[in-house]
Amino acid sequence: MKKGMVLYDGKHKVSEQEVLEKVRYFYNRANQGMEYWSQGDKRVALNLAKELRNALRYEYKNNYLKRIEQAYEDDHNFINF
Fold first, then answer.
1. 64-71 contact pairs (CB < 8 A, 24+)
2. Cys-Cys crosslink for 36: which of 15, 29, 45, 75, Cβ 3.0 to 4.6 Å?
3. Per its UniProt entry, which superkingdom is the organism in (predicted)?
4. What angle do CA 24, 7, 29 make, to 5 degrees?
5. What pLDDT, in 10s, does the model give residues 23-78?
6. C-alpha span between 18 and 15 (Å, rounded)
7. Are 67 and 10 in contact (CB under 8 A)?
8. Residue 42: helix, strand or coil by DSSP?
9. What is the pTM of this model?
10. Are 63 and 8 in contact (CB under 8 A)?
11. In this structure, is the dihedral angle defined by the CA atoms of residues 40, 41, 43 and 48, taken in order, positive or negative?
């Protein structure tokens, strides 16, 4: 996934499949970080955690922009995202 790439960009309709893929991405990266942690590679694990934190922060800030909220206000996946 490219840095700065948000799911809800205000330019296209977002499918349920896209939402699930994004959730799976975060889930898999978190599991990967936990695996590194359990193997003792704490630096890599912390770098992954920071990457995920920043990506989620970016998604969150984007989703609360008025233009994004208005573009997707009727999308049931957006409301639950």
1. 67/10, 68/8, 68/9, 68/10, 71/8, 71/10
2. 45
3. Bacteria
4. 30
5. 999 999 999 999 999 999 999 999 999 999 999 999 888 888 888 888 888 888 78
6. 5
7. yes
8. helix
9. 0.78
10. yes
11. negative
What is the token pair recorded at 32? Answer: 């990967």
Measured between alpha carbons, how far is residue 76 from residues 12, 27, 72 in Å?
15, 21, 9
Which residue shows structure tokens 């995202």?
A: 81
- Asked whether 7 and 18 are in contact (CB, 8 A), the reply is yes
- Cα gap 19→23, rounded to integer Å: 6
Distance between start and end Cα atoms, the chain: 18
